[in-house]
Amino acid sequence: MKKTLFVFGVYMVGWFLTCLQPVFCQDDYQFDLSEIEKEIEKKPYYIGGFLEFRPVLWGLDQDSAFYRIRFFDQDRGSTLEQYNFGLRLEGSYQKGLAGLYFRTDSLLRYDYQGWNGDMALLEGYLSLKPNPRFTLNTGKEVVQWGKGYAFNPVAFVSRPKDPDDPTEALEGYYVVVADLIRSFEGPLKTLAFTPVILPVTESVNDDFGEAEHINFAAKLYFLFWDTDMDLLFLTGESRTPRYGFDFARNIKTNFEIHGELAWITDFKKKSIDSQGRLATEESDVLQALLGIRYLTSNETTLIVEYYHNGGGIDENDAGNFFRSVDRAYDTFLATGDSSGLTTATQLSQDTLATAKPMRDYLYLRASWKEPFDILYFTPAVTSIINLTDQSLSLTPELLYSPITNLELRLRGAFLGGPRNTEYGEKLNNYKIELRVRYYF
């Protein structure tokens, strides 16, 4: 039955797009023979990727809540080492109107638990492009919505970025995506419509939400008065309905402003009482982002973003959680009963263990390209400040490419904050990481 519904949904979207094609794909397109000749000269396939070695040293905070939850019955000392070996493969094959694209990650890791490995398909989809204004993709794909650098409240059909490393590739969902684009003369220069079908079953997109449902999303893009704008929505039974708006505009050639708004209905907001018990209530919440990107005359890029998470827990909830961990740990030391710490572990997985779980954050990043004329060298520093409890992370890094295809990145993350704050109660108080990548 669900397969029939999915096929019917794909058929309906196909019919709908056919109806829209006269609007987006009509009349003024002409074949350019020179462009066709260029395409013929190109190789129809591409294979690339990189090999990676990434050792990590963790400086543990043995008095923190998350250290006690994870290692309450172990003595791991003050540091942990981890060695990561990675292989990324990506490629494409283009034949006429059709193209195949894929990206995979393979990881082998050694740490205090021994060796373990994983392999994941990040993306793998078929793309059909019968003309320059219409594209239809089906398969596993990252649907990139939103204008933010570190946060994207309107990314309704993709996994969230890691704000500590937002440029890293994400894993996609299995979707059917179309793009219809039309250009105009006048204030409205471009109009684009992007509908998405996202099915959820016990084995397909099972981490998106409630299973056995087909979800629909769409984005309507405008380039109006040199301002990029999107209207977005998601509807279906796997997640509650949500609606969004984003924009980006260059005030000057070196100064850009961007923002996002997302309204999520019937969101399950969580709170934690003084006894460490979780309560959930449904309410509509707002998530918002406002940011700027500025390039100075000496090639320094500054990025500043304010992120409001209306569905996050507040300072009192976080404090109640951390105090409950302290009580559970004291009980374990006195009696050997670890049930309270087990309960705290389960509670943390839906609250403070998630990425940026509280209400308000400020993201700051400054990167300086080739300072003092040192070629292929970019130092940077990033900070994420939890405005709710005034704790923070500070991450300096050095990126250098001494030879073609080789990239070296050294970075350290230092966490600060008093007890009963997000960064003050993390598992580690610092992390030092070297990333060596060879591209091929």
Write down how many β-strands occur, each being a DSSP E stretch of 2 or more residues.
Answer: 18
From the N-terminal CA to the C-terminal CA, the straight-line distance is: 45 Å
Helical content band: 10-25%
Strand composition percent:
over 45%
- Per CATH, the architecture is Beta Barrel
Return the structural class: alpha+beta
Description:
By secondary structure, this protein is an alpha+beta fold. It has a single domain (2-439), classed as Porin. It has helices spanning 2-24, 33-41, 65-71, 315-335, 339-349, and strands spanning 45-60, 79-95, 98-111, 114-131, 134-141, 173-183, 188-200, 213-224, 227-235, 242-252, 255-272, 278-295, 300-309, 360-368, 377-386, 391-400, 406-416, 428-439. Strand 9 and strand 10 (242-252) form a beta hairpin. Helix 4 runs antiparallel to helix 5. It is globular and about 75 Å long. The two termini are 45 Å apart. 24% of the residues are buried.
